[in-house]
Design a protein that fits this description.
The chain has 244 residues and is an alpha/beta fold. The chain has eight helices and twelve strands. The protein starts with a strand and ends with a helix. The mean pLDDT is 97.
Length: 244
């Protein structure tokens, strides 16, 4: 199976369309979204429409859960709460129902998908360091050969033996059977690794081959839509230019 995997679109339709065009050219067998289709950006309905019509699986992200009334987000900072409240108020019924029905994880054989750490799915913990990945050691036997996550907006991958964790520093790698892998696939709509290009990934489960991919999109147009909506914080648009 050849997967196209992406995450954290955050209502950025310009970035999403650029990623989907690339994935169409890649001739993947299945599209997987690891969550957070909504939050921060200016086009939540349009992004929900595109994602739910195309993916084999879409995972529940924390922003999806917040908008759908499935978690408490009162502790989020004010601008993020305002965006979530706004998206909850403007989502069409079919998109709200879709978010309310999303699962915390999905599995295709030995390939697993979730939004945050697989250790406690409903807590949405981050994994972007070796120490954070090491929290998976006690559940090594329950991990898939490879587990794909989003949430951090960073492109990171870790190989986990029964005893320790190694960061994989290459963009492309081959999966080895003696390890379990956890891969953070970056963000479509709000990258935070100082690269403004949208992120997506490819995984060929038959060959055990993984690739990080990036694509440029019209950042200025996506940011301008946020600036034009006085209900959203300008910071959500400004950060797109720097990828932070």
């Amino acid at each position: 199976m050849r997967y196209g995997i992406f995450s954290d679109t955050h209502a950025n339709l310009h970035a999403l369309e650029a990623v989907l065009r690339c994935l169409d050219k890649e001739k993947v067998d299945a599209l997987i979204c690891l969550g957070d289709t909504v939050g921060y950006g200016s086009q939540p309905n349009e992004c929900c429409d595109r994602v739910r019509g195309l993916t084999k699986y879409t995972i529940l992200g924390n922003h999806d859960a917040a908008v759908a009334g499935r978690m408490d987000y009162s502790y989020y900072y004010e601008a993020a709460r305002v965006a979530l409240d706004l998206h909850a108020s403007v989502l069409r019924p079919e998109n709200m129902a879709w978010l309310r029905g999303l699962r915390y994880s999905e599995r295709d054989g030995d390939t697993h998908f979730c939004h945050g750490s697989p250790v406690d799915l409903e807590e949405f913990e981050y994994i972007f360091s070796v120490d954070q990945a090491a929290t998976c050691l006690p559940i090594w036997d329950q991990l898939g050969q490879i587990t794909f996550i989003g949430h951090s907006h960073l492109c990171k991958s870790f190989a986990i033996s029964r005893e320790r964790v190694y960061e994989v520093v290459t963009k492309d790698f081959e999966v080895h059977p003696e390890f379990r892998y956890v891969v953070s696939v970056g963000s479509v709509g709000q990258p935070r690794d100082h690269d403004p290009r949208a992120s997506y990934t490819l995984y060929d489960s038959d060959r055990g081959l993984f690739q990080f991919k990036r694509v440029e999109y019209d950042v200025a147009a996506a940011a301008q839509r946020i600036f034009d909506d006085q209900r959203l914080s300008d910071s959500f648009g400004a950060r797109l230019f720097a990828g932070v």
